[in-house]
Write a structure and sequence with these properties.
The structure holds 2 protein chains of 2 kinds. By secondary structure, chain A is mainly alpha-helical. Chain A has helices at residues 3-33, 36-50, 56-65, 70-98, 106-113, 119-154, 161-164, 166-180, 184-206, 213-251, 259-283, 290-295, 300-322, 328-340, 347-367, 376-400. In chain A, helix 6 (119-154) runs antiparallel to helix 13, helix 14 packs across helix 15 and helix 14 packs across helix 16. The longest helix of chain B has 16 residues, at 192-207. Chain B folds into 2 domains: 22-98 and 178-275, 3-Layer(aba) Sandwich (Rossmann fold), CATH 3.40.50; 109-176, no CATH class. Chain B has helices at residues 2-9, 16-21, 62-69, 92-96, 114-119, 136-146, 162-175, 192-207, 219-225, 243-246, 249-256, and strands at 24-33, 36-46, 51-55, 77-82, 85-86, 99-102, 180-184, 211-215, 228-233, 236-241, 258-264, 271-278. Chain B has 11 helices and 12 strands. Chain B has a 6-stranded mixed sheet with strand order 6-7-8-3-9-10, sandwiched between helices. A 4-stranded antiparallel sheet of chain B has the order 2-1-4-5. A two-stranded antiparallel ribbon of chain B has the order 11-12. The chains are: A mainly alpha, B alpha/beta. Chain B: Residues 24-259 form the ABC transporter domain. Chain B: InterPro entries: AAA+_ATPase, ABC_transporter-like_ATP-bd, ABC_transporter-like_CS, P-loop_NTPase, Siderophore_ABC-ATPase.
């Protein structure tokens, strides 16, 4: 070992020790006041860059006075859109209730809820249209959240539960369950089992678990095709007896829902939505790639796994109560992003968009003449497809211009 | 010269005392992908508060080492030490407050402004329940000013030139306010002026007391701007030390397969490599 190296090492060691002590103090400070050290450092740094004529104090005053330009805009726009979406959803619900011969006016509905309603109104509200609206809103919200979670962790606009085989898997599970028993409870079990089998197959097929977003999607498309084949098989087997009912399980329907269905989707949302809200913090940095997400402490693979599990449960919940409704999970996050116009997963807005989309689509199959009687999934697929096409064309135009 | 190289080569026997007090170190760390071992029992200590350049031929494990240091790639054997404690014992968020990584090709999120991107650097300080902290705006502002992107703060990152975009990324790393900064080939894909620009930013970070470790391809730039050079070769540390101690003709021949003359940089006096030709052994690479 040369002398110079030895001396250098020695110096380095001393330096390291000194800095260690400094750093301990710094850490304490940091814990107290967040980021005092770095600020002071960068303050000096900025002043150097700006030349000698810009003292630190000026810089500090400037930095302090300058308002955070992005925050007010983003924090106002989101809630505003949320309120509008809630109002529109309520309007769609009220319209659904009040429509036609059996219509229940808001006043009648209020009377029923306070215990003073008359017979027919009560039946319509609690057994017919009420559950239908609530299931529609709940399933739509669940699909909106599931889609946002999924697209966020796959970093792919097509990485949604419908494309990846979750919806189809849940639908296949649901269809298979009807062969042995019926009732909402077993439907939930069947849908969840189907979704789990589907995501399990995707996990195995990628060869890398959930680590590669692009493989996730390709494997998912294959699994979706298989699941659809299972559903079609069941429908073909049962077609002779009760095919019309099962048709709803192919595309999703809100016909003849009960309060049991309402409870099921409400429980799924009550469990998953808060967890999704907690996960949002980590999802915020997933769009910069796994490596950077890891470096920022967000644990990319863990975050992705958690998001997919939540997505599976939400999706299975929606399918159990309404069938495999297409395109809501795919389109709601896009629409939400288009409305809010800032990066990051917009879980709440997406949930509201999903709820509104399903309510409006269901209203359409009840009120629009040539759509009447169709399963609601046909309309969501149509509307969602058209909107997505519109969105893509607009984006492409903007990027090529 | 030769003595220096050998002592650095036997880094596996790094004095444990040194490891314990130094900020960032590898301790007999082996890292790889699948069957392939990329780093083979590497022991290395990064001098605190210095700017270290990691150099070596393609595929020697430079980026892999950076990933291992940033815990984005797990070590198979051995340990990565932060203040003498294995990384695995630190919480990931706690590490993110002390050590920042800028990957080689980070993904620019859709529709994000410069300010939005820089703001991402504050992530480790926030949580699901504390989304915004009092110091955030200030940290973002100073980071943008330090890198000169404050004038384009509301511009979309996708609309920036390559040089400006890299400045924006470095601003994000600065906003993270860590004492260690790891940069994976921060000068690649930039023109010469912007390369120098980024190297000056590295020196600024060092001047602020940060420990900077950057993977660099250009040996002359590494020699000129870095305090220390680490030469990796076939998954092992071939040499570590000040540029003038490390860079010699034997090393260039052995590691890069290059016959070269070592001149003095007329500006800084640091070693300046003037290639003659590829050496015969180099042909196999």
């Amino acid at each position: 070992m040369s002398d110079s190296l030895r001396t250098r090492r020695h110096e380095r060691q001393n330096l390291a020790e000194e800095q260690e002590q400094e750093q301990e103090q710094e850490q304490e400070q940091e814990q107290e006041q967040g980021q005092g050290r770095g600020q002071a450092q960068e303050q000096g740094h900025a002043a150097r860059h700006g030349g000698g004529d810009r003292p630190d104090e000026v810089d500090r005053a400037r930095g302090g006075d300058r308002p955070d330009r992005q925050a007010p805009q983003a924090s106002l726009r989101g809630p505003l859109i949320g309120v509008v979406l809630v109002l529109l959803s309520i309007a769609a619900g009220v319209w659904t209730l009040a429509r036609g011969e059996l219509g229940v006016s808001p006043a009648d509905a209020l009377a029923v809820l306070t215990g003073n309603g008359d017979g027919p109104a009560e039946i319509v509200l609690t057994r017919m249209r009420g559950p239908r609206i609530l299931v529609g809103a709940g399933a739509g919200a669940a699909l909106g959240i599931a889609g946002t979670l999924f697209q966020s962790v796959t970093r792919n606009p097509l990485g949604s539960p419908d494309v990846i085989g979750l919806g189809a898997g849940a639908g296949a599970g649901l269809a298979l369950t009807t062969l042995v028993s019926d009732g909402p409870g077993s439907a939930w079990v069947g849908a969840l089992a189907g979704a789990l089998v589907a995501i399990g197959l995707v996990y195995l097929a990628t060869g890398r678990g959930f680590a590669s977003p692009s493989r996730l999607i390709i494997a998912g498309i294959a699994v979706a095709a298989m699941a659809l084949a299972v559903t079609q098989y069941v429908v073909a087997v049962v077609l002779r007896d009760e095919g019309s009912q099962l048709a709803g399980q192919l595309v999703g329907s809100l016909n003849s829902r009960s309060m049991q269905h309402v409870v099921m989707i409400a429980v799924a949302l009550a469990v998953c939505a808060p967890l999704a809200a907690l996960l949002r913090h980590q999802l915020l940095v997933m769009d910069m790639g796994d490596e950077l997400a890891d470096a920022l402490g967000a644990g990319a693979v863990r975050t992705r796994t958690a998001a997919i599990i939540l997505s599976v449960v939400l999706c299975a919940g929606a399918v159990a109560v309404a069938g495999p409704i297409a395109f809501v999970a795919l389109a709601a996050p896009h629409i939400a992003r288009g409305l809010v116009r800032s990066p990051g997963p917009h879980l709440m807005i997406s949930a509201l968009v999903g709820a509104l989309a399903l309510l409006v689509s269901d209203l359409a199959v009840q009120a629009v003449p040539f759509l009447e009687g169709l399963p609601v999934g046909v309309v969501t697929a149509g509307l969602g497809g058209i909107y997505l096409g519109f969105l893509l064309i607009r984006t492409w135009r903007r990027t090529t211009a | 010269m030769n003595g220096t190289t050998t002592s650095a080569e036997t880094g596996a026997t790094t004095d444990p005392g040194e490891t314990a007090t130094s900020a960032l170190a590898l301790d007999r760390a082996s890292v790889g992908y699948g069957e392939k071992v990329v780093l083979d029992e590497v022991s290395l200590t990064f001098a605190k508060g210095r700017f270290t350049a990691v150099v070596g031929p393609n595929g020697c494990g430079k980026s892999t080492m950076l990933r291992a240091l940033a815990r984005t790639l797990p070590v198979r054997e051995g340990r990565v030490l932060l203040d003498g404690r294995p990384l695995a014992e630190h919480r990931s968020r706690a590490i993110a407050r002390r050590l920042a990584l800028l990957p080689q090709e980070p993904v620019v999120p859709d529709g994000i402004t410069v300010r939005g991107l820089v703001d991402r650097g504050r992530h480790p300080y926030r949580s699901a329940l504390r989304r915004r902290l009092p110091g955030d705006a200030e940290a973002v502002e100073t980071a943008m000013r330090a890198t000169g992107v404050d004038r384009v703060s509301e511009t979309l990152v996708t609309g920036l030139s390559g040089g400006q975009r890299q400045r924006a990324w470095i601003a994000m790393v600065l906003a993270q306010q860590t004492e260690h900064v790891l940069l994976d080939e921060p000068t690649s894909f930039l023109d010469i002026a912007h390369q120098i620009d980024v190297l000056h930013l590295c020196q600024d970070m060092r001047a602020d007391g940060r420990t900077v470790v950057a993977v660099l391809h250009d040996l002359n730039q590494a020699a000129r701007y870095a305090d220390e050079i680490v030469v990796l070769h076939e998954g092992r540390v071939r040499a570590q030390g000040a540029p003038h101690e490390v860079i010699d003709e034997a090393l260039l021949r052995e590691v890069f397969g290059l016959e070269a003359e070592i001149a003095r940089d007329p500006q800084s006096g640091t070693p300046l490599i003037v290639p003659r030709r590829r050496s015969r052994e180099g042909d196999r690479v």
